[in-house]
Amino acid sequence: MKEYIQQAVSVRPDARQLAWQQVGFYGLVCFGMNTFTDSEWGSGGESPELFAPESLRVHQWVRVAKAAGMHALVLWVKHFDGFCLWPSAETEHTVAYSPCKTDIVQQAARFCAEEGIQFGIRIALWDRHDLRCGQGKVYEDFFCAQLQELLTGYGPLFGVWLDDTCGEGKNGRRQTMDMERIYAMIRRLQPDAVIGGCGPDVRFSGNYVGYCRKSEWSVVPYYYAPMPPLPDDKKPPRRFSMTDLEPGGAKTLRKGHRLLWYPAEVALPMRKSWFYHEDEQFDCKALSKLLDVWYAAVGGNACLMLSVSPDKSGSICKQDMETLLSVGAQLSIDFGEDLAQDSAMSCSGCLDGKTGAENVLDGCADTYWASAPEKNSFIEIDLLDDYDINKLVLGEAVAQQGQRVEAFTVLGEVHGRWQKLHSGTTIGYRTICAFPELRVQRIRIVFDRVREFATLRMLEAY
Fold first, then answer.
1. Which residues contact 180 (CB under 8 A, 6 or more apart)?
2. Which of 67, 156, 160, 70 is nearest to 113 (CA)?
3. Alpha-carbon distance 206 to 241, whole Å?
4. CATH code at 407?
5. What is the mean pLDDT of residues 24-51?
6. Is residue 339 part of a domain?
7. pTM of the predicted model as reported, rounded to 2 decimal places
8. Per-residue model confidence as pLDDT tens digits over 192-223
9. Going by DSSP bridges, is the β-strand pair 302-308/264-269 parallel, antiparallel, or unpaired?
10. What does pLDDT average to over the chain?
11. Domain count of the chain?
12. Cα 277 to chain centroid, rounded
């Protein structure tokens, strides 16, 4: 096995990244000053008096998110206009000086805990309201003081998203931040939280339209993440982009001097814009579009962050709510009963005596099947009766063996002959193989191309 491939399969996710990937689908609540000024980019000069929801219903946001099949909710606590959805002691540009008065961060955290879903925050590094922004350390100290309030006052966070977008021109206020200081603060105060956005734990997929790669690798060269170079690091290529087709493919790995686990997140607004706008009433994405994106992202070794935009009243509008409830209802139907449970497993061979095929059905995250290092190894499931099947959920043993599968084929036995149902490339933490419904009893997964050997920790059939 080539040296760069050996290096790639030796990279593992940490516990934070595994927990985040397990969440899979979560919402981003975009509600703030922009909601009341009909804007996407506030100036920072807006009066807190404008922030006046008539019937704030944070609990509705959480209940709808849960019913949609989301396992967590992220609240955008401060957008680029600098208005804070919590009563920060560091500024008067907050809910405390608005007609609302409500600590929305506190309510969102509490209701998420009550409903049994996780809670996270998203915060802009750039602040168009505070005049210290652009003045270096004095602003950085202000930001870190606000961040400490959020990290210590609202219970456990599953993630912190940092947005470094800056819309100022060449002569505008541009603020540089000591990101290592910010990362260290989050690690110290919220050790279980992933750091996303411009963070080192979760990789932006490169677009906001729900596009997903056919092959999504979690192991990529260090220069795709905001990691400081080491003295002996080779320079990254002059041109690389988060939209590259295969940032973890073999061709890219050859150029990488240092590799890291940096899994992908797909972000998508439900509407044309991120915040609620009255004239976009009919721009809510169709159920079919949202389901397509969900299958491609959650079912393609990534996670999906879908924006939810409450209106000026402080509620999710009826159309958006009905669409989200429909997403949840369809997912409940699609994944109602795992038909693979209590099935019989067999395989072409095992790496050793502890990695037998039966491990993929035991529900334990620490056990898995690993193939012998042979060409076209396979694992086979006998459902013990005929069932109508149209999808499989597969997951590699990434915590123990990294990401290894490059290409695989799913076959179903029909009248004694094997018929191709699906072909795929990467698997990673989770891949969903969807195909036309077929009545079968036996299904075989052939691993056409792997990095030394294949692994599976999970196999589900629906």
1. 228
2. 156
3. 8
4. 2.60.120.260
5. 97
6. no
7. 0.94
8. 999 999 999 999 987 888 888 889 999 998 88
9. parallel
10. 94
11. 2
12. 26
